Every structure is written in structure tokens, then in C-alpha cells.
Sequence to fold (170 residues):
Amino acid sequence: MLCPNCGIDNIPGEDSCESCGTDLAGLDLPEAGSGFRGRMLSDRIGDLRLSPAVTVAPDCTVEEAIQRMRQARSGCVLVADGGELLGIFNERHVLTRVLRETRDPAATAITEVMSAGPLALSPEDPPAHAVHCMVDYGFRHLPVVADGKILGYVSVRNILDYIHTDLSVR
Fold:
């Protein structure tokens, strides 16, 4: 990142210039600009077609959660109590935390194998934030929550649909 004061090339992410000490904080933040990149930064998650929330209670079993996922044709269930998001359970959990560990789905509580306190998006977040979380953390499903209320979730499929719609319009 070039210092606007002295022109020295600093390491990206530096808060101040190595040479003159000029404050660089925030100067390397991406700008919305125009085109697809601009829309990825200026559109909102709440404007995407969210997948409807499929919820289960924390006292349900893995078997019940899998049945709910199959019925809803969903890749995940959100574990909630009184509308409060407690965790998320998805297809990967079935494979890595249930089958690999040879647990009995009928006798295993969902709370034993879910991801507790999942990262949740706000409907005000840009789609680029969802993509960032999916790539950096390996998430395929991200709950969307506003004012403590579960609105649904964003999946890789939702993001691909968003991209496809953008490309189709052009």
C-alpha cells in the first residue's frame, strides 16, 4: 500500500507508514465501485433468496434432525430454543461427527454433535462477506439473524444463484 504522504510502498494492512508514520488505517479497504464486484459489496444478504430456516429443538436426536433435513430437502438444520439460535447441524456433521465416530443417530442428542454458537450473518451484510466466510472458514451454510430472530440461511447454492442471476441479466 502506497503512503499518500511520502509515496513509500508499505506492507498491505499496515496501520501507519513505516517511513513517515502517516495513518494508513482504512485506506486499503475495498470500495464498492461498479459492476459485479460493486454489487457484491453494496447488495445486501437480505435481498438474496434465502433458504428457509429448518429448525429443531435442542432436545431432539440426530435421527430426528436428519429426518427434518430430508423432509425439507435442506443441507442443514438450525438448532434453536424459543427462537434463539444455539447451533447448526449439517451433512458434514453427519459424516464426521456421527458416522465416523460410529454414534447411534437414534441415541445421540443433536447438542452433542452440532456446531454451537455458529457465525451468523445479518441481512445487512454484503454477499461478499458471506463468500469470505465460506471460503476462509469452510462453511457451506450460514444462518441469517436479525434482532435475535432467525430469518433463514445462506448456502453456497444461494450464492451461486445470486451470481447466476447477475450473469444472466447481462
Remarks:
- Residues 156-169 form the longest helix (14 residues).
- The mean pLDDT is 91.
